[in-house]
Amino acid sequence: MGDKLEFHGVLQKKLLELAPDFCCYREKEHPIPNVQSNGRSGRIDVAWWTLADRDLLAVFEIDSTVRTKSLRKILHANCPYRFWVYYGKRGIKDLIETLDTEHKITIIDFSIAFEKRKKKVKQRETEQLVLDI
């Protein structure tokens, strides 16, 4: 299997490709303004917009590590559906309970063992892994 960064890219691509199946526009690296306490913006990995009224429908943040700022970005998005796709090994329950007190985020949590390899793994192998999930 490929590395974490490659997996992130393939999963992001697949989420972007799915948007039309749900009658949505798609956007990669969608800006979320004023996420940080200093007023700085952040970017969400994938955003889906409705075709009919062009409202933000769903956001997807993809992480292999527990990142508080990722959850803050998701919570700051003004949309009905918020997804955090987590493929790391650390427990996330405590962090979610602390930050998402209103249970607005849907967590897609799965664990993948990434091998440390020196040779490059084919893109097709990583894409197949995403399809199998």
Describe this structure in words.
The chain is of the alpha/beta class. It has four helices and five strands; from the N terminus they run H-E-E-E-H-E-H-E-H. A five-stranded mixed beta sheet has the order 1-2-3-4-5, sandwiched between helices. Helix 1 crosses helix 4. The chain is globular, with a radius of gyration of 15 Å. The two termini are 13 Å apart.
Short description:
This protein has helices at residues 4-18, 68-76, 93-99, 123-132; strands spanning 24-32, 42-50, 56-63, 81-86, 105-109. It has 133 residues and is of the alpha/beta class.
- Sheet/helix structural class: alpha/beta
The tally of beta strands, per DSSP, is 5
Strand-residue proportion = 25-35%
> What's the shape?
globular
- Report on the biggest sheet: 5 strands, mixed
Give, in spatial order, the strands making up the sheet with the most strands.
1-2-3-4-5
Low-confidence stretches: none
Order of helices and strands: HEEEHEHEH
Number of helices: 4
Instruction: Report the C-alpha radius of gyration, rounded.
Output: 15 Å
Helix content: 25-40%
Gap between N and C termini, in Å? 13 Å
Mean pLDDT: 83
What are the defining features of this structure?
133 residues, 4 helices, 5 strands, 31% helix
Q: Topology, please?
A:
Layout: H1 4-18, E1 24-32, E2 42-50, E3 56-63, H2 68-76, E4 81-86, H3 93-99, E5 105-109, H4 123-132
Parallel strand pairs: 3-4, 4-5
Antiparallel strand pairs: 1-2, 2-3
